[in-house]
Amino acid sequence: MIFCLQQKFRCGLCEDLFFPAQRPCLAHLKEQHSGISFKCKLCRKIFRRNDNPHQCRATKDDFYQFNQLNGNKGQDAERYMEIFMKKATEDWCVDIEKKKMEEKEKLNILLEELEVSEDDENETDTFESFQKMSWESEVL
User: Fold this and answer.
1) Of 13, 57, 115, 129, which sits 20 to 30 A from 84 (CA to CA)?
2) How much is the mean pLDDT over the chain?
């Protein structure tokens, strides 16, 4: 596991890949998990990013997106990427501190429920003791 105290985000799909900020985490998700690639219009080579320097000296405008999963390109691929990045931002780029706080809150709720259960058990014991005393007083 790659981890350092300054790593604040985790890839929710890789689980063991950490990042110092949200931006590189989202870049990783986009490049490695989206299924979207970029094809250079000039040399027809395929890249994971549209800012890859290569021999034909293409600019960002010289690339078009296409979805390797279903073959869609252009606006369909762009729409898919928008949906993917929304999901990536909300679910897969995990804010470690936020996640810790959520887990801590869940644990506190469970502990509170456990305490209530123990109180209920004590009340049950008291009621059972009362029943036993009542029965003993009637029988004896």
Assistant:
1) 57
2) 83
Name residue 78's amino acid: E
Query: Using one digit for the tens of pLDDT, what is the confidence trace for 73-106?
Result: 889 999 999 999 999 999 999 999 999 999 999 8
Give the Cα separation of 110 and 77 in Å (integer). 44
Q: Could you tell me the sign of the dihedral formed by the alpha carbons of 67, 14, 102, 25, in that order? A: negative
Q: What pLDDT, on a 0 to 100 scale, did the predictor assign at position 50?
A: 78
Residue with structure tokens 């279903």? 70
Phi, psi of 63, rounded to the nearest 5 degrees: -115, 150
Say how many CA atoms lie within 13 Å of 94 toward its Cβ.
16
Q: Which is it for the CA torsion 81, 86, 88, 93, positive or negative? A: positive
Q: Is 55 helix (H, G, I), strand (E, B) or coil?
A: coil
H or E stretch covering 29: helix 22-33
Q: What is the DSSP letter of 88?
A: I
**Spatial distance between the Cα atoms of 107 and 132, rounded to a whole number of angstroms:** 37
Q: Which of 20, 30, 84, 100 is nearest to 9 (CA)?
A: 20
